[in-house]
Amino acid sequence: MKKLIALLVVALMAFPSAVFAKDIKLPSPEKKGGKPLMECLAKRKTFRRFSPKMLPPQVLSNLLWAAWGINRPDGKRTAPSALNKQDISLYVVMHSGVYVYDAKANKLVQKKSDDLRQFCGAQEFHKTVPLIFVYVSDLSKFGKGGHAHAKFYAAVDTGLISQNVYLFAASNDLATVVCGWLDRNQLAKKLDLPKNVRVVLSQPVGYPRL
Ligand SMILES: Cc1cc2nc3c(=O)[nH]c(=O)nc-3n(C[C@H](O)[C@H](O)[C@H](O)COP(=O)(O)O)c2cc1C
Asked: Is residue 91 included in any domain, yes or no?
């Protein structure tokens, strides 16, 4: 019995996330419908007042797919990426913890169980908005050579995903704001990101508080 408990303690220390992680399986994304593109462009805007109401699973799944889902059999996505390196990971920060979007498995993989929303931006709404995307780039995917060039590509790749989110928000009457005003190093530490992996921008998404 003692041996079993000792083994359990060792396992917990070595793989805490494997033992406690609560991944969120998403419903299949609906790839039809929505407002016409020209209407979405006409409605696209930044909106900074959020209702506390969480997006239902189907809307969240649709949003994630629109943002950075796989849209072709070869694994390419709804947003382009420089050299098709797909350097961006879409982190989802909520009250219940931090998750990474696994587009292939269509689920949110839990990375942490703490509420880190307050670290995702410097504005008041970051503390209470139910859902914040954090765009994180693995710069090492662009090779060892040019760091500046990798950061440039990471910023562009993030902007393209962020615009997908803006258009989805316009189509679904949601509120969103992309945010560069954040302490990237502090958030990277809170997210336990390795050195080559950088926070680029954050983007709360939710229902508008009118
Ligand atoms: C790279 C980038 C960073 C931004 N950072 C912030 C931010 O930290 N906080 C904020 O409230 N808005 C931020 N914005 C939103 C802009 O203020 C907003 O897009 C601009 O005022 C134009 O408004 P519109 O999006 O409604 O056209 C950012 C936009 C971009 C493109």
From this structure: yes
- Whether 118 is in a domain gets the answer yes
pLDDT digits (tens, 9 = 90+) for 162-173: 999 999 999 999
**Could you give the C-alpha distances from 69 to 63, 90, 104, 107, 140, in angstroms and in order?**
9, 10, 8, 11, 22
Q: What is the pTM of this model?
A: 0.92
Question: 164 CA distance to ligand 1 centroid (A)?
Answer: 15
Residue whose CA lies nearest to ligand 1 atom number 25:
46
Q: How many domains does the chain have?
A: 1
Residue 178 near ligand 1, beta carbon < 6 Å: yes
Q: State if residue 156 touches ligand 1 by the CB under 6 angstroms criterion.
A: no
The answer to the question of residue 14 being in a domain is no
Q: For ligand 1, is residue 58 a contact (CB within 6 Å)?
A: no
pLDDT recorded at residue 144: 76
Written as one string, the DSSP assignment of 46-99 is ----B-SPPPPHHHHHHHHHHHH-B-STTS-BSS--GGG---EEEEEEETTEEE
Q: Is the CB of 118 under 6 A from ligand 1?
A: no
Q: Write out pLDDT tens, residues 76-93.
A: 999 999 999 999 999 999
Q: List the domain range (segments joined by +) for residue 59.
A: 22-206
Does residue 184's CB lie within 6 angstroms of at least one atom of ligand 1? no
| Atom from ligand 1 closest to the CA of residue 47 | 26
| Cβ of residue 48 lying under 6 Å from some atom of ligand 1 | yes
Residue 100 belongs to domain with CATH number:
3.40.109.10
Q: 2 lies in a domain? A: no
Q: Point out the residues of the chain with pLDDT beneath 70.
A: 1-21, 145-146
